[in-house]
Specification:
Number of strands: 9
Structural class: alpha+beta
Number of helices: 8
Oligomer: single chain
Distance between the termini: 19 Å
Mean pLDDT: 82
Largest sheet: 7 strands, mixed
Helix content: 25-40%
Shape: elongated
Strand content: 25-35%
Low-confidence stretches: 4-34, 228-243
Length: about 240
């Protein structure tokens, strides 16, 4: 737990690159053109690539090549040649890899009843040790959202929006909805994996850039944050009411 807390406060700023169009297939970027569109979740290989870029290491490209669809679809006779082609392709991708776009993660969240006095909902299952696991090519990664406890309060002033959220919460088991989080990767720990819950994970620290709330069955977002809302320290006073 001490190491998680220490890791959460790490804040060195990482270099930012632009994402070439050729990498779009590796990670479908978040799209906001339609209110019905839900951002595509980050794939395990995208998260793994982000970890290696943050730590300045080179992945095991041979192992990664054997995870690709092209290698798996190749005949035994062609697999060696396909592996070599995929290794070269992955090296090129890694050389151009960018981290301008956020990691996109989702999790089930449990909402409190609506507060008429404070105009909002409280997320009951955000915890200090919340992390998002991903596994790829024999390695496990844990995305650790920094300051997640400051994001527990959902400010909802519009009565119609509040009613829609409450109806969606009451229609699901235990008031569980789906939260999509857009996380900006900031740093990673390459010194050693850390044991967390069910295994050892390589840690990636990320800032919460945006949050979007959906009904458990999907559909249009019920609520969206913005950067100003996430940075608004007034919400901490409201959070303290629930501690």
């Amino acid at each position: 737990m001490k190491r998680i807390i220490y890791f959460l406060v790490l804040g060195f700023v990482c270099s930012v690159w632009s994402l070439p169009p050729s990498l779009a297939r590796a990670q479908e970027l978040p799209v906001y053109a339609s209110p019905e569109t839900k951002p595509a979740l980050s794939t395990p290989d995208y998260i793994a690539m982000t970890f290696f870029k943050l730590t300045g290491q080179s992945p095991d490209f041979e192992s990664w090549a054997r995870q690709t669809d092209a290698y798996k679809a190749a005949s035994r006779f062609d697999q060696m040649a396909v592996q070599e082609q995929e290794v070269q392709r992955l090296k090129e991708v890694y050389g151009l890899w960018a981290m301008q776009e956020p990691l996109v993660i989702e999790m089930p969240v449990k909402l409190s009843a609506y507060s008429d006095a404070n105009h909002g909902f409280f997320i009951e299952n955000f915890r200090l040790d919340t992390f998002f696991p991903a596994r790829y090519a024999g390695m496990a990664y844990a995305i650790v959202p920094q300051g997640i406890m400051d994001k527990q309060w959902l400010k909802v002033e519009d009565p119609a929006v509040a009613a829609a959220i409450d109806i969606a919460a009451r229609s699901s088991a235990d008031r569980m909805l789906t939260m999509v989080l857009l996380l900006t990767p900031r740093s990673a720990d390459k010194s050693a994996p850390m044991h967390m819950e069910d295994g050892d994970y390589w840690l990636i620290a990320a800032d919460v850039k945006r949050m979007m709330l959906y009904a458990a069955k999907g559909g249009a977002p019920l609520w969206k944050s913005d950067d100003d809302t996430l940075r608004d320290q007034k919400h901490q006073n409201l959070l303290n009411l629930y501690q």
